[in-house]
Amino acid sequence: MLQVDHVISERLTTEVPLVREVAQYIISAGGKRLRPALLLLVSGAINNQNPQRHTLAAVVEFIHTATLLHDDVVDESTLRRGRETANERFGNAASVLVGDFLYSRAFQMMVDINDMRVMQVLSDATNVIAEGEVLQLMNMHDATIDEAAYLRVIRSKTAKLFEASARLAPILAGADAHTEALCAQYGQALGTAFQVIDDVLDYEGSTDELGKNLGDDLREGKVTLPIICALRAGSDAQKTLVRQAIEEGDVTHLDAIRDIIVQTGALDAARVSAHEEAKRAIDAAKQLPANAYSAALLQLAAGLLERRS
Fold it and tell me: According to the UniProt entry, where is the signal peptide (predicted)?
């Protein structure tokens, strides 16, 4: 990861001061760096020592960071990773344009790799992520969204880059199709579980733990799995209150909504769904060569279910 950070620092060079300032602001905020770490762990599990893995790990972090910059503008977010979002600090225009810079820099780095399969996986992933963002926008304030529609969004918007990160390792290694499919399955399932837990924490955690404002999903009119489960199990009065909050983006009754989500068992139901996805990831990882890296992949999937921030 230190080598990845070195690549990130090296490739953020630009003669435009504002680009450098905004990009460094959001990247220096830290975060979990899960996607590049995933690429490196899968590389270790299949004994891929290709030095280009560090460049590709930086590429997926740049793509992820670009999506964060754009997401926060679309969602009008003010807090991420415990501090002001880039759009809150520098304005929407700077955030969008620097996000574009990071996307284009990521594609420059992909070209340096000079592998068409790598280009295909990452360009397809970037396109699917954009489709997921638009799907989510279309679903805003729609209380009729069901679990299938919700999963379609998060498998596009979040899990696709996890899947691509895990798939790139066997591609670099020239591994067989079965190994590539196992790695891709692990990444997609892990990314799906990660997002379900993230959506649970929007109603279960605290602002200090999460580094973002609680109730943001409700304010933005996002119908996430805890809401879907609450609408499925709640009383008529509870469903009316939840629907009204989603359709109007009203956080006035946030505490009451959180109580409903807890009382209906919606958080537990959502965690069951995350557990099923984590099990899919574990099943895939168990078929990879047994070593310290594949053990870490198993631990990562299992530990995700205990996530509180």
Answer: none
- Tokens 């450098």 belong to 20
Is 259 a domain residue? yes
Up-side HSE of residue 150: CA atoms within 13 Å toward CB? 22
Rounded distance between C-alpha atoms, residue 289 and residue 133, angstroms: 35
Q: Which residues contact 37 (CB under 8 A, 6 or more apart)?
A: 1, 57
Element (H, E) at 14: none
- The predicted-structure confidence for 147-187, as pLDDT tens digits, reads as follows 999 999 999 999 999 999 999 999 999 999 999 999 999 99
**Alpha-carbon distance 25 to 89, whole Å?**
10
| Claim: this prediction has a pTM higher than 0.85 | yes
Residues 293/169, Cβ–Cβ less than 8 Å: no
| Spatial separation of the C-alpha atoms in residues 193 and 41, rounded to whole Å | 18
Query: Which residues form the domain of 53?
Result: 2-304
| Type of residue found at 148 | A
Is residue 260 within 8 Å of residue 228, measured between CB atoms? no
User: Token pair of 135, please?
Assistant: 């799907």
Number of domains in the chain: 1
